[in-house]
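INFO  loader      accepted 1 record
INFO  loader      residues=48
INFO  predictor   begin
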Amino acid sequence: MGANRDTLIIGARLLEPIIRSVGAKPALFMVWPDVTRNAFFDACRDSY
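INFO  predictor   done
INFO  writer      dumping tokens
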């Protein structure tokens, strides 16, 4: 989870000022693991 979460945070922080500069509000949409990977749902949710 570490590298993916770190990448998500870095990307969000880089894009936030650009998004806000045009008057928009940043939002993250969580991806859901497919049905064959339901066991990873909690880890995916915790990453966000």
